[in-house]
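Supplementary Text 2. Reproducibility record for the structural model of the 712-residue chain.

All settings were left at their defaults, and a single model was retained for analysis rather than an ensemble. We include the record here because the model underlies the residue-level annotations in Supplementary Table 4.
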Amino acid sequence: MAEKNDYVNRELSWIEFNYRVLSEARDKSTPLFDRLKFLSITASNLDEFYMVRVASLKDMVHAKYAKKDIAGLTAKEQLDKISEKTHQLVDLQYSTYNRSLVPALKQNGLRIVMEHEDLTEDEAAFADEYFHKNVYPVLTPMAFDSSRPFPLIRNKTLNIAALLKKKNEKEAELEFAMVQVPSVIPRIVELPEEKDENGETQRVVILLEEIIERNMQSLFLNYDIVASHPFRIMRNADFSLDEEEAVDLLEEIQKQLKKRQWGEAIRLEIESNVDKQLLKILKKELSISSEDIFQISGPLDLTFLMKMYGLDGFDHLKTPKYTPQPVPELMNEDNIFTNIRKGDILLHHPYQSFDPVVNFVRSAARDPEVLAIKQTLYRVSGNSPIIAALAEAADNGKQVSVLVELKARFDEENNINWAKMLEKAGCHVIYGLVGLKTHSKITLVVRMEEDGIRRYVHLGTGNYNDSTAKLYTDCGILTCDPQIGEDATAVFNMLSGYSEPRAWNKLSVAPLWLRHRFLRMINRETEHARAGREAHIMAKMNSLCDKEIISALYDASCAGVKIELIVRGICCLKAGVPGLSENISVRSIVGNFLEHSRIFYFFNDASPEVYMGSADWMPRNLDRRVEILFPVEDENLKEKVIHILKLELEDNVKAHLLQPDGSYEKVDKRGKVLVNSQDQFCEEAIEMAKACQESKDPAVTRIFQPIESSNE
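Retained model, structure tokens:
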């Protein structure tokens, strides 16, 4: 029986994950501009972590919620540990930026002016002119005194606070004022190029807040500026909905979104040399505690580094852009429905293009034989071709039903806009189920053919988002298997009405019985091991924190089941602990693409079963979301999916291994052939598309031969 000490706290495990992302920013073998990107990602990750997870824990403390987590910690104990760990993380972020990245950028032709006092005479003149022409007209200085309340400070905005003293009044009291750094003006301002000490041309940039701070006097003409410092606050963005009481879910979410900007302040970032009196005012007016104040040595909000990454002229310092390859099975003149009828088609993004998924919906919209299209949407891109295709389908007289999940965190507003647009186009729009998020990724196309109705289905591990499909690793299947088609119809009937089928053919759906399905398959391997037979589980997911699943994995390990897990982010399981989990290994891959696919393999006494789906092994996925697990049954496709797992388990370049003490270490690759799984998948996709193009033989497209690992 596993004890509380056998589990890792979810939030501390997440911080460990952000350290792994940070390690990519610190790795000198990573291209320089990619290191900027990784550092930016750690900052945006931390923002979301505070707005949601830390905010939720603070709500628990306020509500005097005493229940302990999986690792036996109260909400208050978790907050204390999080504060300590995140302060250490932020210190490491800024030492990486100041000591490593800024000097390296300067050596490579890009100088960042850290403080406006460092500007040359010519640069200062340029910056001042830029301020008066472009910035000054946009700014709104705000004072705080007995007649004016403390300004409302929006979530995540960058501001400059100042202490002012009236001119020519020796006994004048210090007054507080502030100005918001406008987000409508680019934060990175490029100054005229200069020559470095070697006579080489060097580009120069400065941050907008430095230009504003340099010119603060222009905003407060009758005052002397005693001190001024940029600051930024994070607010509680975790809203809760009483869906049972909400008359209109759409309206209720719109109301809650407005509140998000003004939630409780839970984190304050400010310059490390801040004036004590100014900090005291902010602390009092924002009602923020000392442990939630981060005094920072460097520019606040490092997410600007993603814009820095996008600067033109530095492609030689970035990983070359990869172009997703065509899917061999679709590289012919036949339409997509004809190709699906030839056999199930596996899609592996971003190594293979997301275009077939868009084309599937677009073709269905335009095909006169198609009667209906049904789809779930969780997150879509800003200018989604899939949304356009669904609207076109409705315009063409098809029956179009779309479940738009309004509760997809931080995409609520985007999804509300799409939902309204689809309704105007004539689509039947469903706003999710009460109490559940619909996280499954499924599209059903119903087509009238010569031999009757045929159902075509796309099932995936990732969102219907053509933008993130270039950045996230995901898998999907296109199929016209009649049993899966029947199940897909049942899923949509369940989502749009109250019709739950008596039996399912091949799909497993949460929250109905996906948890029990996983537990049965894990326990089956345990029984095989106890009977002396070979037993093996390989599973890949984003997060693992479900206590019941972890407990079953511990039992399986003790029985002798070999368990190989690939978990990108949170992992509450302890690996390699004698007598508990010595047969379990856990690895996390942090590379150029975000690992996002969920794949599950069970040896099943030499009759392997392979599944893919939308669910992680987390309570929310198994109990509070609509998720779908689907089997990979075609033997050739099964082999391809097993190859994905095996290659990631061989990765010794971007993989971090979980140690028994809970830390992660990069794989020791000394004397080994280097295996970067993401690079190799790119090579394989290129080789497969090329072989298909050269062969012109459709049979070749269904043969799979992985290429050998190569030295880098």
